[in-house]
Amino acid sequence: MMKAIHMDNEQYNHKYIEAKERQAVQHKFSGVSDGVHENRLPPGQVLTDKFSILDLGVRPTREQYSTWSIEFKGLVKKPQTITLADIKQITKDERTLDFHCVTRWSRYDLYWGGILFSKMMERVGIKPEARFVVFHSFDDYTTNVPSAEALGPDVLIAYELEGSEIPPEHGGPVRMIIPTLYGWKSAKFLTGVELLDKDAPGFWEVRGYNNHADPWLEERYS
């Protein structure tokens, strides 16, 4: 597995992190449900054709792409580390999906290629008591998702964006895509997938962000 960068690393964009923490403190939950998601654009969002670049300030290099791997651990039947090269040998799944960022922008129809998370979980096997997934990233970022949500029909371990490898600024070489949740749940620079029997709030969740992050309920902050 790729070596993670520890949380106290001076390379982090601390001003960005502090600004996001202040944002979480200043804003409270204010959303209302649209019922059955009949609205494609979630409440409070603005449609854009841009794909903004937001991360903690630490990214892998292109040179690291060729040796990338992902560790599957915790409550899985066959714990293992799988190289990205091996994942790419599995039949590719393709999805065109909308992306909703908690900072209030949305982008429609992004094409992603990769492998469905549910398909990968069939390969490693999920133990019955596994109720949560924690995604681990190269920059030591983590985020938590209920396993039922992570196993949704459009959730991808993605390694292609618009037909090409995902660039580092957008989370390459491999990242999660969970279209039913705000973008911070779609962990960039994916290096680990951990199945747990209890919840484990991640980087932004312990800094005032909502634990679930449904865009149609405007679950932005806790």
Layout of strands and helices, then pairs:
Blueprint: H1 14-26, E1 46-47, E2 69-74, E3 80-83, H2 84-87, E4 93-100, E5 105-116, H3 117-124, E6 132-137, E7 142-146, H4 147-150, E8 156-161, E9 164-165, E10 175-177, E11 190-196
Parallel strand pairs: 1-5, 2-11
Antiparallel strand pairs: 2-3, 4-5, 5-8, 6-7, 6-11, 8-9, 8-10
Keyword list:
Sulfite Oxidase, Chain A, domain 2; single chain; 222 residues
Describe the protein:
The chain is an alpha+beta fold and 222 residues long. It has a single domain (14-217), classed as Sulfite Oxidase, Chain A, domain 2 (Alpha-Beta Complex), CATH 3.90.420.10. 13% of the residues lie in helices and 27% in strands. The chain has 4 helices and 11 strands; from the N terminus they run H-E-E-E-H-E-E-H-E-E-H-E-E-E-E. Strands 1, 4, 5, 8, 9 and 10 form a 6-stranded mixed β-sheet that branches. Strands 3-2-11-6-7 form a 5-stranded mixed β-sheet. Strand 6 and strand 7 (142-146) form a beta hairpin. The two termini are 32 Å apart. The model is unreliable at 1-6 and 28-34 (pLDDT under 50).
